[in-house]
Amino acid sequence: MSFILVLIVIAPLLASIVAGLFGHKLGKTWSHRLTTGSVALSFLLSLFVFKAVALDSVILNENVYLWAEVDSIKMQFGFLIDNLSVLMMVVVTFVSLMVHIYTIGYMHDDPGYTRFFSYISLFTFAMLLLVMSNNFLQLFFGWELVGLVSYLLIGFWYNKETAAYASMKAFIVNRIGDFGFILGIAVVLIYANSLDYIQVFDRLEVSVVGGKGDLPLDPITQALGLSHQDLIALLLFIGAMGKSAQVPLHVWLPDSMEGPTPISALIHAATMVTAGIFLVARMSPIYEQSDMVLNFILVIGATTAFFMGLIAIVQTDIKRVVAYSTLSQLGYMTVALGASAYSAAIFHLMTHAFFKALLFLAAGSVIVAMHHEQDMRKMGGLRRHMPVTYWTAVMGALALCGIPVFSGFFSKDLIIEAVHHSELSAAGYAYVLVLLGVTITAFYTFRMIFMVFHGDERMDDETLLHLKESPKVITVPLILLAIPTVIAGFFVGPIVMGDYFSQVLLPAQNASEGMRDVTTIMVAERHDAIATLREGYHGIFSFIGHGLLSLPFWLALAGIGLAWWVYIKDDSVADKAHDKLPWLYRLLDNKYYADSFNQKFFANGLVYLGTSLWSFIDRLIIDGLLVNGVGRVIGWSAGWARKVQTGYVYHYAFAMVVGLALMLGWILLALRSA
Amino acid sequence: MMEWPILSFLIWLPIMGGFGVLIVGDRYGARQAALLVAAISFLISLPLYFAYDAAAGTMQFTETFKWIDALGVHVNYDLGVDGVSIALILLNTFMTLLVLAASWDSVKERVAQYMAAFLIMEGLVNGVFMARDALLFYVFFEGMLIPLFLILGVWGGPQRIHATIKYFIYTFAGSVFLLVSLIYLYTQTSNGSFFLPDLYALTNLSENAQLLVFLSFLVAFGVKVPLWPLHTWLPEAYSQAPTGGSVMLAAISVKVGGYAFYRLAMPIVPEASHDWALLVVSLSLVAIVYMSLIALVQSNLKKLVAYSSVAHMGFVTLGFFLVFKLQGLAFVDANVSGSVLAVQGAMVQMVSHGFVAGALFLAIGMLFERMQTVEISAYQGITTRMPVFAAFFMLFAMANVGLPGTSGFVGEFFVILASAKAHFWVAFIAATILILGAAYTLWVVKRVLFGEVNSSEVNKLSDLNRREFVILAVLALAVLWLGWWPEPLTRLMEGSIREWMMIVSPSDLMPVVKGSS
Predict the structure, then answer these.
(1) d(C-alpha A181, C-alpha A250), whole Å
(2) What residue spans define the domains of chain B?
(3) From the CA of B303, how many Å to the nearest CA of chain A?
(4) Which of A102, A303, A401, B208: CA 20 to 30 A from B256?
């Protein structure tokens, strides 16, 4: 088993290295065969592992190699394969495989073809490293490496100024999150003296039962009124906010759409951006200890879910609509985390990975057909030309809106219900926003569907003439992704309502230390909204029936109806709304001015600060006053003012130094005799 | 123990080789001869790693001869290495070899003298890392400046004289204090000795004397590292030096400063170091933030890397001087205080910084040879013309950013972890390098590598030749190896650092060492 796990991780890495270094020798065909084949291998092996874990209840926690051992702290690379990580492995490798296949068609004529395959395989490696980790070190490796690949892929078309800028922005904003993350790891090490998950969970005394007594707190922690669990949970969540693009660290994700569309699907929708969600779920034993941070998570998540959804309404670029939708959906997952409905969050992560990857790839299919035109105002009526793309996109859209039987319905409904039952103080705020968010989601989603696929054909004649369905290599992944988009919801029974995440105990690494076992996801009793839902759960069909009668479904229908009214029935409504509420339009169109604020305040501020420090302190005070000035002073005092003006100030600095040294020598000698 | 005086070989072979090259002169293959000497030195240094008993962590391969024994002055030629010295010696022999290879075409005048200067410097620097006698240390410490000044002053840029003199003034100021302190310490030993263990054993120093000695060490070594505000020589020296000079300054010369804190300052006056640790920690934190901000606004590639290099060296002094705060602190496990972690971080950072800063200066040198400028604005979109170069540059930039998987991550990670143990806010300030480092590095990557080619000069650029490729590839492997598997390096140094920790602990603050308690 250990060998299989290593192979799952290593195969994409090796393929990436070979394709990256020797791509020009291998040629296009062998490059994509190699990388796609290796990811297919990882996917199949992941399925095998999934079977072992989910059905046969095999749990693995083993170290692969010793990275370093310093100060008696063992830093290892290793795998913790349990129900959570194996689910992530399957989702990641599946979506990655689809994207690999799709890329063969999408990037067909790009000069960077082999480089692209090398990058996405490297990404798969990094993401697997992240989800399979059994310790914070490897987690951080995966965490930063997916960030690196994201950076490289956003800037894939490096000649484009906007792409180069967006890639830099993505990396730096992510680094702000990582700043919190690394401090979180540091605080973990203070209190647990280990980076191994199981040991950390145990030593932080986060198993929900019992307590090991208080650890000494950092004075600052006390001053802020935080417990060490609060501090760790908060710092790690800041990392999650960066990667999962939560307000106010969301600004990089819309710009990341500068990258090629396949990676928008893989990295900026399905997998990498959900790493933050995965992180919090993985750390549930820590988060359950801190109501304060859970409240904070609720607020951040709900704010992101609602306000980012609003921006999607005014976007005209098809990819940006989907991007803001991703932000909003990530907000939903975050809300679920805050409500301690970790299993619902992971479930939504999974269904979202399928339907959002589908939507992005469908958007990519449209973009190819439109000759790289992304403005929806120049589209329309495409359903007649691209039936496969249209129908798969509609399925994705229905799932996104949470219409019953589509996968998104189950996951989103659960999140809303869980927030409803949460007893945290921020739950009320979150509940209102996620409910309103449902209408918003339905509205912008079908606005996009109607603008792109229905109505008049608004493109120029040249494009119209060449409109045709994309080739098989593009449509087959769409169809393959549409299948789980429709049916994945039916696993709600076992995954969330059942005991998939709570039945298995994770073995402590050395039981001799008397460590307690912990389950994959732990929920404190006082937070257990999911348990309440579980009591009311009587099978999948009553769940659907209940969904049809509850508020979110009708809110979604209202959103779709509104979109139909505005964009199909009477297209003057949009203009009227625009004229009535110009301030609102401006606010949304400028994305709440977050970008211009960051640019003016942070970016320009830092540059200004750097310039002032440099010219004032470095050059004026240290060099001008001290280094040169001391020389001058000595010169003057010695009455050699004329020579100073010849520029030989260094002579006098020299004299000064010798003088000082003599003085020091004298003092030392005096001390000695004393 | 080895009968062979391997340490002396490592000092005198490059020096003699250097003089040999001088004699051979420009006409008869000075380049080949120098490269051969450097290669042999590197090969001789390798067995040190394998033969050293790292678990013991003691001084090994020791050599002792009477050197000066007249007029009542006793100075011995005492050599010895521990794991930390070996790491730095290997870095030195490795980087010298690469620098000589890199200077193959770029130096056209006085080739033999240029090559000789590097070889002589290599030997002297090895001497610094091996000396167990304070006066011998001083001789090597000062002696290495002579070839460095020559490299800077003869082969440097247009303002080389100004830069050299400024550097000279700074280092000379430090050296004078150092010499006076060493002589004073000598007078305090019972048997009149410069032997370092004798100086470590001094217990009769008054508080004021300790303070003065510490301050003079701080100035002498702080100039080298450099500590804020003793750094203003560095941007000029780095930017005026020829490529090889910048590399040796960044990769080797500043390490001598860090090493001197480790070998002299902290063990000789541990109480004063303990009392004044907060000062050095503060200066290090200032360096990290302040230098990063200044690096952000540089328009000259070499100056940018120079400031960035100072910021990263801040982690070295930070790691060293956190030790005092960490000793005796142990939250959960009585065996772990984090002090070894802090010093390991500082040392790994030194080695990594040698690779990364060295590689960046070499890469910039390759651009300079093609375009005769290091102004950032002269470049744009060079990926289009030099894709292989761009790939390497990206890797080294990422190492500079401290990305996991590169050597740049390891040391900073250790130091940040350890500093959080000492005090949360220290870690908070130190960790800002994650953001600031990314900002200035990626911004320069964007301006130099990305974008449309907009000048005819850039359009004519040719990609790396085979020699350049090999040099950068070797460094890239070093950076990746240290990033993915630092264990061989940390194991080499772990025992030595634990030994060292016993010396620097002020007597009332003995660290809890494994097995005791």
Answers:
(1) 16
(2) 276-517
(3) 12
(4) B208
